[in-house]
Amino acid sequence: MASQEILREEPSRGSFVNDPRIRSLFFQTLVVVLLFGSIWWIVQNVIDNLQRLHIASGFGFLKGRAGFDISDTPIAYTSDSTYGRAIVVGLINTIIVAVAGIITATIIGFIIGIGRLSQNWLIQKICTVYVEIFRNIPPLLVIFFWYSGVLAVLPAPRDSYHLPFGSFLNQRGFYFPRPVWGDGSWLILVALVVGIAMSWFVARRARQRQMATGQQFPVFWTSAALIVGLPLLAYVLSGFPLSFDLPKQSTFNLTGGFQVKPEFLSLYLALSCYTAAFIAEIVRAGIRGVSKGQTEAAAALGLRSGSILRLVVVPQAMRIVIPPLTSQYLNLTKNSSLAIAIGYPDLTATAGTVLNQTGQAVEGVLIMMIAYLILSLVTSAVMNVVNARMALVER
Amino acid sequence: MQEHDMSWVRTEMALAQPAPASVSGPIAWVRRNLIGSVGDTILTILGILLVAWILPQVISWAFINAQWTGPDRTVCATVAQGGIQPDGWSGACWAFVNAKFGQFMFGTYPVEERWRPILVAILFVVLLVPMLMPRVPRKGLNAILLFLVLPIVSFFLLVGGIFGLPHVETSRWGGLLITLSLSFVGIAVSLPLGTVLALGRRSKMPIIKMLCVIFIEAVRGIPLITVLFFVSVMLPLFLPAGVTFDKYLRALIGVSLFAAAYMAEVVRGGLQAIPKGQYEGADSLGLGYWQKMGLIVLPQALKLVIPGIVNTFIGMFKDTSLVLIISMFDLLGIVKQNFSDANWATAQTAKSGLVFAAFVFWLFCFGMSRYSMYTERRLDTGYKR
Q1: Looking at this predicted complex, what is its ipTM?
Q2: CA distance to A151, A154, A158, A264, per residue, from A161 (Å)
């Protein structure tokens, strides 16, 4: 006892300058003081500057009349709408282009990534060339290339390209038939929802039965029949309520149909092509990360090559693929802000216009930052759920 | 008895036969790599069709039908568009790139002063090349010259105003000059800053850790354009009235801070990969924090994450093209600005200019990625399983 007390009483410390705890306390206090000092200085300057420029701070400006037009409006918007609504329109446009881009980039990326691992020399080289080209040029350049290099030199509406299904392609964008839903078309939607719910249920039951008895059930074909068949049945029963508004060619322009503007088209294509190159590399790394023994063991169990891929290789590759894939999705969402360079009204563009018109720089930048942060967090959250389902379940 | 012995022993080796044609040689290669199975054959045919469709178009556009020299748009326009080419002609307008080459490189830097950026470029190459070659000695001196002396010398050379050099405002800089100088300074600033941020994030001091985490996550969560907006719109508000910042300097701050946040995450990955025994070993030797990090941990950690660091460099090099948004004209910006030159406006101008810019960007990025692969192999002294 006594010796312990002696030890406790006489900790041989050097001078207090060398005490890690005191040093850490000192440095942290110093940092906090410096930080608050500079924040105070900045805030003072901002208040001074805003007063000098006669700008009122606060978010009241969001209720003011916007007074500018937006070319792509997914929700009702006129120049008489408020600034707040303009920013919401921009946010929705960002989400539309990001979601469309993510889906397309994933599809192209997986195809190219698997192609790079192909046994086929030619396919492998083509995919490598694709990846090496798109990985090494700036996304903004790809956007400009689609916008001014490809889409802007398409023919005028008078000589548009005729594409299948009554769609047209010209300088002013891509036109395709717009579905017009008549009376009773809600039945089709209900049938679709019912079909999806039923196929989910069937898949669950089939899995339980296979676990219990080993009997298999053709889940894929049943689900396909349910998801396609039920809406078709509803379509027939409700008396063919669906018709199409076809784009018609007149002397100077196309009327009717649904128009996809070149700004959206070039942004969407560029982001998809660019991000696909990165996704391809991730997919390649993921598949190569599954050791060869896994494939061979599956083959030794007597699985066919399709089943090996579906049941053994892909689930393990997905574990490696999903975290970097998430960060590519986030990058794509952030890169969609390049829209401003070609005039697609995304969040950065509309918020930037609002910022310039009102002079509310602090609030404008704050709104942009928070909106992108929320988008990023939502994407990460969704991908984390997917990741958790894919993750290795250990004992 | 001996004469009737039927046993026979070969005394010399049999000559090696060439491998059968079915396992080596070009035919076997084609069989194995192109037409191994029915699916493979279909893919090969599709691939050949794709190449046969794209390649001739690209070659005839870029080389055969291309116009290399010419005074104005007429050489690149068809007769219907007021030029000399036959209708339906499609070829690259390298004449446009040729005529604007000086602008693409230096922006509107005064023509009689252009020897200054050229001199800086030569100095840069002279210092960079020995730096990149592992065999050349005196890396320390070289690094000091490259990362400390060169920026200062270049600053005075490019901006001027002393030693009788006329002053050139940064608003007159442009083209590749801006792209390269922004990314060089960005690289030189973001690597040390990112390392400090990464160390801060793994620090035991809670406040410093929290500040680093907030900075890194906030910057990584928003697009570079927003950061550039922030520095170009908000920095002037942050400073006392009358103090103004050069636009070039603002872009430099934005790009460096942005890259530093990404760099911090890369370096953190390296720090986490170092086994705990290394930290403890350094502690037991009695090293202080900075000695431990500088002598033991960081050299190993940075070596591990070279690919990530170079990827960040490549990303930053590509991202410098975004300064276009705050109306500065880097290589891409100045190419785009020249599309609207009425003297050169044809259907081919935009495509040619963009392909040229893409080629320049590609050359730098591809070079960087290849060099990083080479370094990775050279420094691969363990850890690889």
Answers
A1: 0.83
A2: 12, 9, 9, 19
